[in-house]
Specification:
CATH class of the largest domain: Alpha Beta
Low-confidence stretches: none
CATH superfamily of the largest domain: P-loop containing nucleotide triphosphate hydrolases
Number of helices: 12
Strand content: 25-35%
Radius of gyration: 27 Å
Shape: globular
Number of domains: 5
Distance between the termini: 47 Å
Helix content: 25-40%
Largest sheet: 6 strands, parallel
CATH topology of the largest domain: Rossmann fold
């Protein structure tokens, strides 16, 4: 965004305007350092002519309905407990939105609710389906949306009264964005269901005051990041050309070296009026983030209809050959498909609808990072760990090394898994933990009450002859600790684990 604003300023001046007179208006409800971020995005610096280039309006006159925040005990039965709470709120006539941290969780939760008054919403669904979900909510046809972060920001749904979070979203900023989707017109309620297996979730449970006090995280970014600099310099050169004497003025001093490198590689050309570039370099700029802009269409084998669209790396994991894929149709029914083929040349996955079953597939994925070229010499930083005997601090070191490297995401196969919603024992210390007990209201071993939960069992595993691979190059930092630090941290973790198990 910062680089786009710089290109706008160059274009305004190029066509006879005055970029210094441009006024930028930045809006944020969840940023911890709004003034610093606005200055960096717009390149605002105090001058004699304008000693205060930024006006910060931080008092809101908007209505602020009362909001109730509920934090439940951490759950080992996260999807089922979330469904139970949503079902309760549905019966009470409440409308709302539930956020999940993955697409699979959205589909599992939507399928478990089995209600045509609930709609799934995630990045892969078509623009038409997105608009249909919003229209159905506004008309009252549906009451709840089950969503990923795709609905975290940028949409106003005043009809929503409740927000349920299946697990902590990872930051205070994301929490505020998600919680803010509901209760915008009348009093609302946010329910956080922490994941018992996540230490951060458990910490939030013990300190719920963090949700209603304090600022969100600060936002930091490198506005001279060389890879982004190269992409946007090429765009600017293709749009308007760049006067060689104005590179620093518009893009900063670091851009000069990047421009020299692009010229040496033949990507930038120097003419009478400055630097220019051929073609359409804009196709390599992805404002939505992520590694890959390549998308794969999911096509119905019988109708030829494009069902959804996913990024290539998600396609490797979710629509590989024989993968089982579930999606919701316009009537709110969850449909089951099996992938017949994945053609990465035509960017299509062919799916065939099959009868509903408790089967699903889970891909084997791993990441590999390799260094291609060292950019700095290793830097050793001293660490201080208290001695066990209470003497002097232990001498230990952490080493950092910056290099240019390659990151690969590899999908090598998949598991075929069956998933049932059954009565079971949720006592983690019991041998019957998450074993099917369909006819028992109490566990035969620990005598504790049983509850319904999603139970999974692996039936088979398959490997691909040729693994699917997504890779990209980027600067990487290698972090290494010496044996003294390793020994101390292993001892600390072992003692902490023992202490927690005793207290649990």
């Amino acid at each position: 965004m910062a680089w786009l604003i710089r290109r706008i300023q160059l274009a305004v001046d190029h066509y006879g305007g005055r970029s210094r007179e441009l006024q930028f208006i930045f809006l944020s409800a969840t940023c911890g350092n709004p003034k610093q971020l606005a200055r960096k995005l717009a390149g605002l610096k105090p001058t004699k002519r304008d000693p205060k280039p930024l006006i910060w309006i931080h008092r809101s006159g908007a209505a602020a309905p009362h909001r109730q925040v509920v934090v439940t005990q951490p759950s080992y039965n996260l999807t089922s407990d979330t469904a139970r709470i949503i079902q309760f709120l549905l019966v009470q006539g409440k409308s709302g939105i539930a956020f999940c941290n993955s697409r699979r969780s959205v589909r599992d939760l939507t399928g478990l609710l089995k209600s045509n008054r609930v709609a799934a919403f995630y990045g892969g669904i078509s623009p038409e389906r997105r608009a249909e979900v919003v229209q159905q909510l506004q008309s009252g046809t549906i009451q709840w949306i089950i969503a990923t972060e795709a609905l975290e920001a940028g949409i106003d749904l005043p009809e929503l009264e409740c927000c349920v979070l299946r697990g902590w979203p990872g930051s205070k900023m994301a929490y505020q964005q998600r919680s803010g989707r509901a209760g915008r017109v009348k009093p609302g309620m946010t329910v956080l269901i922490p994941n018992a297996l996540n230490p951060i979730d458990r910490y939030i449970t013990e300190h719920p005051e963090l949700l209603i006090s304090g600022e969100a995280e600060d936002v930091f970014f490198n506005d001279e990041y060389p890879i982004f600099a190269a992409k946007h310099l090429l765009c600017a050169a293709a749009e308007t050309g760049i006067p060689t004497s104005k590179i620093k003025h518009y893009f900063g001093s670091a851009a000069i070296e990047v421009a020299k490198l692009l010229m040496a590689q033949g990507h930038l050309n120097k003419g009478r009026n400055g630097l220019w570039a051929r073609g359409y370099p804009h196709k390599d700029v992805n404002f939505r983030g992520g590694v890959s802009q390549t998308t794969v269409k999911l096509v119905d084998a019988e109708s030829g209809e494009a069902l959804e669209e996913v990024s290539e790396d998600i396609a490797h994991r979710e629509v590989h050959p024989h993968a089982i894929y579930k999606r919701q149709d316009g009537d709110g029914q969850m449909l089951t498909y099996q992938c017949i083929s994945l053609d990465l040349t035509s960017k299509q996955a062919i799916l065939k609808q099959v009868p509903d079953s408790p089967l699903f597939t889970a891909a084997f994925t791993q990441s590999e990072t390799s260094s291609l070229k060292a950019l700095t010499n290793p830097v050793a930083l001293p660490l201080k760990f208290p001695s066990v005997e209470g003497g002097a601090d232990l001498p230990a070191f952490l080493t950092l090394e910056l290099s240019y490297g390659q990151v690969s995401h590899i999908t090598s196969g998949y598991s075929l898994i069956t998933q049932l919603y059954e009565q079971t024992c949720l006592n983690r210390r019991c041998l019957n933990y998450k074993e099917p007990l369909p006819d028992d209201r109490r566990c035969p071993l620990c005598i504790k009450p049983t509850r319904k939960a999603l139970l999974s069992k692996t039936l088979s595993e398959e490997s691909f002859e040729q693994p699917y691979r997504t890779q990209f190059s980027a600067p990487i930092v290698k972090v290494a600790i010496d044996s003294t630090a390793q020994d101390y941290l292993q001892t600390f973790a072992r003692e902490a684990r023992t202490s927690l198990s005793r207290s649990g």
